[in-house]
Amino acid sequence: MIIDKIVQAHSRQEWRNWLSDNHDSEDYCWAVTANHDPVSYLDLVEEALCFGWIDSTKKRIDNTQTAQRFSPRSKRSNWTELNKERVRRLAKLGMMTEAGNRVLPDMKVESFVIQDDILAQLREDETLYRHFQAMPDLYVRIKIDNIQSVRNDAKLFQNRLTKFIEQTRINKMYGQWNDDGRLLEY
Questions:
Q1: Calpha distance 165→172 (Å, rounded)
Q2: 123-130: Cβ within 8 A, 24+ apart
Q3: How deeply is 157 buried, as exposed, middle or buried, from its count of CB atoms within 10 A (0-12, 13-18, 19+)?
Q4: Which domain of life does this protein belong to (predicted)?
């Protein structure tokens, strides 16, 4: 994949300005950041969501620079529970734009459903299920969505489900699920 249409994203504001000027005219871009730049991957993703864009491929350019590909979302694209929660936060902070709002899916938390076979496995072990019920709703939605999203890949699905069950059995939350606390209280 060729890295072209490069946007130097030295700060969150620079990236937001570029998106504001180009979100409706470009079909993709590569946001390039250097190790010393204050802008984080999460900052890039949040601003992209504000304008209805999404990240995909990440490539290392050299020892000091990384390129992240961004493009506009289609109205029918799949949304992770993590990105939905990010958008809920961004909306509450007044950062979402009309372009970002146009591509939103059903944003109701209640719309997320844990599939019956997963719930059945969690209920098989009383301790496991008790730990599961005590975990934060956001954590559960993000982790279960990550499992359910790969249902068509049996091996990956089983690996993710097994890890979730094993970690939940010992009452341990794992992985990135709250954007370093940004999604906990907003």
A1: 10
A2: 125/169, 127/169, 128/165, 128/168, 128/169
A3: middle
A4: Bacteria
Q: What is the CA radius of gyration of the chain?
A: 18
Residues 6+ apart with CB under 8 A from 116: none
Determine whether 180 is exposed, middle or buried from the number of CB atoms within 10 Å of its CB (0-12, 13-18, 19+). Answer: exposed
H or E segment at 137? helix 137-148
Q: 19: Cβ–Cβ under 8 A, 6 or more apart, which residues?
A: 47, 48, 50, 51, 53
Is the pTM for the entire model greater than 0.90? yes
What is the per-residue pLDDT across 95-129, written as a single tens digit (0 to 9) for each? 999 999 999 999 999 999 999 999 999 999 999 99
